[in-house]
Structure formats: C-alpha cells, structure tokens
C-alpha cells in the first residue's frame, strides 16, 4: 500500500492545509469509520454532526464546514470537497492496468500499427490494419476488428469486443464485456419474413469517454453512431444504431436509447429510462430514472414519468383507479355537460 504525506496531498488538490503536513496517509475512507492513517471528506451538510467525532487523520472540508470541526483535527480546506475527493482518488488510485506489456498469447496482425508503450493481454486479438495510439492498453480476451483506430491512453478491460471500422478517441475507458460496433437492429419485413439490412456505418467515439460493463453501442446503418467527448455511460446500457450523444452527457445503468435519437450536450439520463428513436433531446435536459420518453424534448429542464414504488395495497388501489380512468373521464364530461345545460 502506498503512503502519502498530507502536505503533498493538499498540494495535489489545491487545498489549504490546517494541521500536520508530515502526517502519513495510506488511503481514503468514509467519514464515519476513517482511522488515524486515513483521509476522508464531507460533501453533504447533513453529515456535519459527525465531524467532531471523526477519527480520520485528515478531513477534506469546505470553508463552511470548518466551524463544525475540532481545533486539533487536520483539515484540507477546498472550494468543492466532492470534486477534490475525486481528484484525490485519482491520484491515490492503485487499480492495476488491464494488461502489462504484450502477452505471448496475443494474436496481432502483421498489418496492425502499434504506438509506443502498448500493452495487450493474454488471448487478445488485434486484426488487420488496426491502429493503436501510444499507451493503449488492451485487456485479456479483447477483440479489435479490422481498420479500427484507438487513440492514445485508451484502456479496454478484459473481453471487450470492438468490431471493424470503429474509431475510439484518446483517454477513454471501456469496461469488461462492452460491445462496440455490433450490428444495429435493421430489418425489412417481406410477407412475414425478416430480411436483414447490413449495417455499413461505423461508430465514432470521442475523447475522455467512459463506457460501462456489458454496454452495447451499435454501428450505424449507413452513417455512424456518434458519442462525443466526455460522455459517461454506465453498465448494461443499449445505444442503438445512429444515435448521436452530445458532449458531457451522463447515462445511468440500464438505459435504452432507440435508433437515430439525438441527445444534446450535458444531459443526464436516469437509470432504466427508455427513449424513443428518430427524435431529438435538447441540451441540458435531466431525465429521472425509469422514465419513458416518447416525444422530442425542446426545452431544458427535468422530466419524469416513472411511477414510484408504493406498499402493495396502495399500489393495487392506484392501479385499479388507473384502469378505470377512461370511464371516470366519460362520467366527468357528462357532469360538465349537465352543468352547462343548467
């Protein structure tokens, strides 16, 4: 386990240190159970009552939190403790790379172009005319299809499949078992028989994109599916063919985005949401979890449609009322008509 001096950590996150700069810190821990060799943080004011009892070696706080701490506690005072925690976690991160060096069991085409300091794990396959930038890491069991290009600093964890003619930018992170560039769901029906439409487009992924485990991003039918810079996509998401996702958008687990949907910049899409295709979501939209979006959204704001859980007895009553809403509406209109006639 690495060791860090508290003063050095304060410098790394641009914070103001109050306390012992020479204190040795081993790791980050939660506020309620951190010990003297650990550092913690507070980002929600409702936990301020825990500060005086906190046993951490140091606490990352905002200036507003300082008065709730003891005078003898070591503090790093920052503008935004949660962002500072994220930066500190990156700096102290001990997660290993998906691969080191090039495994003897990796299968790499003679026509592939490899940059400097490439790592390819056991049993990975790199096909013809693939281009890998400097410092790319390809995990064990990955497949990278023909003519695909992967930018410098990008890492693929084990068993990622990247089909042919895919472009992935710099400093991306793709978690295990994600599939990039699989066929879009394109079929024509002729007299009850499904006729497959070859998906000849590609996938273009920008820089600093993160894609979760088991997420699937389909290739376009003719044009490419596009994921712009700084997009983060959680696990088990489905991004259909020709979807275009704007810069800085975040998509939580289990979301389904149907074909030819365009999602704007800096949107937030909650988990298990389903969004219809062939329409547009404007910039700055937040969609709460389990929402079903069937019409375009043209104004920035928060949108919801999921029904929150209730005790079963209450839910059965709600469902019963919902099933009878058409009849209730007819009766209401009849009453309104009678009132007008009077």
From TrEMBL:
GO BP, sorted A to Z: lipid A biosynthetic process
Main function: Catalyzes the N-acylation of UDP-3-O-acylglucosamine using 3-hydroxyacyl-ACP as the acyl donor. Is involved in the biosynthesis of lipid A, a phosphorylated glycolipid that anchors the lipopolysaccharide to the outer membrane of the cell.
CDD domains: LbH_LpxD
Name recorded for this polypeptide: UDP-3-O-acylglucosamine N-acyltransferase
Domain of life: Bacteria
One term under GO cellular component: membrane
Enzyme class: transferase
Binding partners and assembly: Homotrimer.
InterPro entries: Hexapep, Hexapep_transf_CS, LpxD, Trimer_LpxA-like_sf, UDP_GlcNAc_AcTrfase_non-rep
GO molecular function: N-acyltransferase activity; UDP-3-O-[(3R)-3-hydroxyacyl]-glucosamine N-acyltransferase activity
Enzyme Commission code(s) on record: 2.3.1.191
Active-site residues, as the UniProt record annotates them: 241 (proton acceptor)
Catalytic reactions of this protein: a UDP-3-O-[(3R)-3-hydroxyacyl]-alpha-D-glucosamine + a (3R)-hydroxyacyl-[ACP] = a UDP-2-N,3-O-bis[(3R)-3-hydroxyacyl]-alpha-D-glucosamine + holo-[ACP] + H(+)
Pathway assigned in UniProt: Bacterial outer membrane biogenesis; LPS lipid A biosynthesis
Family: Belongs to the transferase hexapeptide repeat family. LpxD subfamily.
Source organism: Phocoenobacter uteri
Keywords per UniProt: Acyltransferase, Lipid A biosynthesis, Lipid biosynthesis, Lipid metabolism, Repeat, Transferase
Stretches assigned to the UDP-3-O-[3-hydroxymyristoyl] glucosamine N-acyltransferase non-repeat region domain: 22-90
């Amino acid at each position: 386990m690495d060791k860090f001096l508290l003063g050095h950590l304060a410098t790394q996150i641009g914070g103001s240190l109050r306390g012992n700069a020479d204190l040795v810190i081993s790791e980050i821990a939660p506020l309620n159970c951190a010990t003297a060799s650990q550092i913690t943080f507070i980002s929600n004011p409702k936990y301020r009552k825990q500060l005086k009892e906190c046993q951490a070696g140091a606490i990352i706080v905002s200036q507003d939190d300082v008065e709730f701490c003891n005078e003898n506690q070591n503090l790093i005072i920052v503008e935004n403790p949660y962002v500072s925690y994220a930066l500190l976690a990156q700096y102290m991160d001990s997660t290993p790379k998906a691969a080191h060096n090039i495994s003897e069991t990796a299968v790499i085409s003679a026509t592939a172009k490899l940059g400097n300091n490439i790592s390819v794990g056991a049993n990975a396959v790199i096909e013809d005319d693939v281009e890998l930038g400097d410092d790319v890491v390809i995990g064990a069991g990955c497949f990278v299809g023909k003519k695909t290009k992967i930018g410098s600093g990008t890492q693929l964890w084990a068993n990622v499949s990247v089909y042919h003619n895919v472009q992935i930018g710099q400093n991306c992170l793709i978690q295990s078992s994600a599939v990039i560039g699989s066929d879009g769901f394109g079929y024509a029906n002729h007299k009850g028989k499904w006729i497959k439409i070859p998906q000849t487009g590609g996938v273009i992924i920008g820089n600093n994109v993160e894609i979760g485990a088991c997420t699937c991003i389909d290739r376009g039918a003719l044009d490419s599916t596009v994921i712009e810079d700084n997009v983060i996509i959680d696990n088990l998401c489905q991004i259909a063919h020709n979807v275009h996702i704007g810069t800085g958008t975040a998509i939580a687990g289990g979301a389904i985005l149907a074909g030819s949907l365009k999602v704007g910049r800096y949107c937030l899409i909650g988990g298990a949401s389903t969004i219809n295709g062939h329409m547009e979501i404007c910039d700055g939209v937040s969609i709460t979890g389990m929402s079903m979006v069937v019409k375009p959204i043209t104004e920035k704001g928060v949108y919801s449609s999921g029904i929150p859980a209730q005790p079963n007895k209450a839910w059965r009553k709600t469902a019963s009322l919902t099933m009878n809403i058409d009849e209730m509406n007819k009766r209401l209109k009849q009453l309104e008509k009678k009132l007008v006639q009077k």
